[in-house]
Amino acid sequence: MASPIVSTDWLHEHLEAPDIVIIHAMLAFEKTLDELKTEYLETRIPGALPFDIDEIADQSAPLAHTMPSAVQFSSQMRRMGVGDGQRVVVYDTSGNFCASRVWWMFRTFGLEDVVVLDGGLPKWMAEDKPVASGQPRPFKDRHFTARFQSMNVRDMDDVRQALQSGQDQVVDARSPDRFTG
After folding, report:
1. pLDDT in tens, the chain (181 residues)
2. What is the DSSP letter of 44?
3. 3-state DSSP call for residue 156?
4. Are strands 5-6 and 114-117 parallel, antiparallel or unpaired?
């Protein structure tokens, strides 16, 4: 398997490649969604498409950020202009917290050629690489085929069984505050 991470130099060299789609991942956690959208409009990697984790989720689920269905994900990707045969590069503004989630979502829906930008937007900007602002280019619909990979998702019963059996390693990646409360 190729590395799930690409360098800022690699992306800079491939910025204009027609098969590259750049995703600016967002999750209203420490900032409001309006603040995140404003930041996206003010400073982003050229060509980056906004990906709001709260929006691209199962809106009917009782828990926040629930994985959407394959149909929902395909529909959202089509409207964003993400399609089959493209390489997706995901970044965020906060140390890849959101980018890794979006990477996992794409992998769960069968996209193999998806990577996370090492260091995200902070590293990109620290290296004085080009940024864009203003309204993004209009999205052109593309066909995205979602193929749900059930092995990437576990429900509460699966986690309980893994904890009881000791057969699997369970890692909780939430912050300490979210974990305890």
Report:
1. 589 999 999 999 999 999 999 999 999 877 888 999 999 999 999 999 999 999 999 989 888 888 999 999 999 999 999 999 999 999 999 877 899 999 999 999 999 999 999 999 999 999 999 999 999 887 788 999 999 998 888 888 988 998 899 888 888 777 787 778 6
2. B
3. helix
4. parallel
Task: Return the H-helix or E-strand segment holding 24.
Answer: strand 20-26
Rounded to 5 degrees, what are φ and ψ at 89? -115, 120
C-alpha distance from residue 34 to each of 27, 43, 134 (Å): 11, 14, 15
Number of H helices, E strands in the chain: 7, 5
Q: Are 124 and 98 in contact, with CB atoms under 8 Å apart? A: no
- Torsion-angle region of 141 (φ positive above 0: left; ψ -120 to 50: alpha; else: beta): beta
- Give the whole-angstrom CA distance, residue 59 versus residue 79: 17
Distance separating alpha carbons of residues 105 and 110, to the nearest angstrom: 9
Name the DSSP class of 141.
Answer: -
- Count of CB atoms within 10 A of residue 181's CB? 5
At a CB cut-off of 8 Å and minimum separation 6, what does 4 contact?
Answer: 103, 114, 115, 116
Note the CATH architecture for domain 5-154. 3-Layer(aba) Sandwich (3.40)
Backbone angles phi and psi of 150, in degrees to 5: -60, -25
The pTM of this model reads 0.90
